Automatic annotation (TrEMBL):
Span of domain Transketolase-like pyrimidine-binding: 62-237
InterPro entries the record matches: THDP-binding, Transketo_C/PFOR_II, Transketolase-like_Pyr-bd, Transketolase_C
Organism expressing this protein natively: Marchantia polymorpha
Record keyword Zinc-finger present: no
GO biological process: branched-chain amino acid catabolic process; response to nutrient
Name listed for the protein in its UniProt record: 3-methyl-2-oxobutanoate dehydrogenase (2-methylpropanoyl-transferring)
Keyword vocabulary terms for this entry: Mitochondrion, Oxidoreductase, Transit peptide
Pfam families, per database record: Transket_pyr (PF02779), Transketolase_C (PF02780)
One GO CC annotation: branched-chain alpha-ketoacid dehydrogenase complex
Cofactor(s) essential for the protein: thiamine diphosphate
Catalysis performed (reactions): N(6)-[(R)-lipoyl]-L-lysyl-[protein] + 3-methyl-2-oxobutanoate + H(+) = N(6)-[(R)-S(8)-2-methylpropanoyldihydrolipoyl]-L-lysyl-[protein] + CO2
Enzyme Commission (EC) number: 1.2.4.4
Oligomeric and partner information: Heterotetramer of alpha and beta chains.
Molecular function per GO: branched-chain 2-oxo acid dehydrogenase activity
Length: 382
């Protein structure tokens, strides 16, 4: 049965009224009234794009949130089945990633929702199941937990439980994650490992503006549900030349950012810039580091990491999330299984501590350049 988006949003609003009130420390959210009923569009071919060739495409210097905005603009422009919704997205969102999109494409395609993450994701699953591109924004990754059941029990299993007769592959859930410098335990968490445990969804985390644009467009157009975590620390701090056109970067394909021979370093998101600085400092002491950006955590590129470790004989994984049960543990176990006879030192992990994310003590919690450099030296001299 097909229903209008106006009708679907009214259901979502009722869901919000029935949900327990959440005490979010973000700006208040107003409900949007959609102008007219919008018919759910039938299936049509996606715009074809490919990874741009280096030096062959015009580029513009952008920060990360502007690159995200550009990707969302392209997604809405190239596919009329695409919709963006979440708390405060109508005026641009907390981090301004959706600025001007409602003015350009209309409030029936970019609209605010009630403050109810379970309702946002539930609505997104239904919209995607009707052959649309649902791009749902969770204001902070820390707020994603009320929607956990919808993501892991509904979205992830939709295709499997129907024997591939139905799916919600057009679903992308965007969420700012990680340290922000002053967020404390409700605005700085890194929950990626929770979702990496769930078959049926993909987990993608970019490290820079150009990566964010290409990976987000690939996620939106992928035929599987994707949880797309954006490193909020980099929204304004990370700036680079970004291809101006429509392009996609491959999911589940790691990138070797820096080649080396002595030790392999693996990370994702904002942690890559920290790790890169550690690699530079290590090179001054004669240690050659190979640095790999995983980019997609599930399904992750084991082959690239395995080939690197077989060459270097050592591995270090770093992430902001707590060390116990973090995704670094999965990487460590997999590489030990595959490369045991080539390892010349135990796999090292430089991660967050097993505590709630602190506020005043954030500098002590974070896996810093010096912590990583010390771990590199220890591994190389083992």
């Amino acid at each position: 049965m097909r229903i209008s988006i106006t009708r679907a949003l009214s259901i979502l609003q009722r869901c919000a009224r029935d949900c327990p009130q959440q005490q979010h420390s973000s700006p208040s959210v107003g409900n949007s009234t959609l102008s007219g009923a919008v018919r759910l569009l039938s299936s049509q071919a996606l715009a074809t794009s490919k990874e741009p060739e280096a030096g062959n495409v015009p580029k513009k210097s952008l920060n990360l949130f502007s690159a995200i905005n550009q990707a969302l603009h392209i997604a809405l422009e190239t596919d009329p089945r695409s919709y963006i919704f979440g708390e405060d997205v109508n005026f641009g969102g907390v981090f301004r990633c959706t600025t001007n999109l409602a003015d350009t494409f209309g409030k029936h395609r970019v609209f605010n929702t009630p403050l109810c993450e379970q309702g946002i994701v539930g609505f997104a699953i239904g919209l995607a199941a009707m052959d649309n591109r649902a791009i749902a924004e969770i204001q902070f990754a820390d707020y994603i937990y009320p929607a956990f059941d919808q993501i892991v029990n509904e979205a992830a299993k939709f295709r499997y439980r129907s024997g591939n007769q139905f799916n919600c592959g057009g679903l992308t859930i965007r969420a700012p994650y990680g340290a922000v410098g002053h967020g404390g335990h409700y605005h700085s968490q890194s929950p990626e490992s929770f979702f990496c445990h769930v078959p049926g969804i993909k987990v993608v985390i970019p490290r820079s503006p150009a990566q964010a644009k290409g990976l987000l467009l690939s996620s939106i157009r992928d035929p599987n549900p994707v949880v797309f975590f954006e490193p909020k620390w980099l929204y304004r701090q990370s700036v680079e030349d970004v291809p101006e056109g429509d392009y996609m970067l491959p999911l589940s394909k790691a990138e070797v950012m820096r080649e080396g021979t002595d030790i392999t370093l693996v990370g994702w998101g904002a942690q890559l810039s920290v790790m890169e600085q550690a690699c530079i400092d290590a090179s001054k002491e004669g240690i050659s580091c190979e640095l790999i950006d995983l980019r997609t955590l599930i399904p992750w590129d084991r082959e690239t990491v395995e080939a690197s470790v077989n060459k270097t004989g050592r591995l270090l994984v770093s992430h902001e999330a707590p060390v116990t049960g973090g995704f670094g543990a999965e990487i460590s176990a997999s590489i030990v299984e595959r490369c045991f006879l080539r390892l010349e030192a135990p796999v090292a992990r430089v991660c967050g501590y097993d505590t709630p994310f602190p506020l005043v003590f954030e500098p002590f919690y974070m896996p810093t350049k010096n912590k990583i450099l010390d771990a590199i030296k220890t591994s190389v001299s083992y």
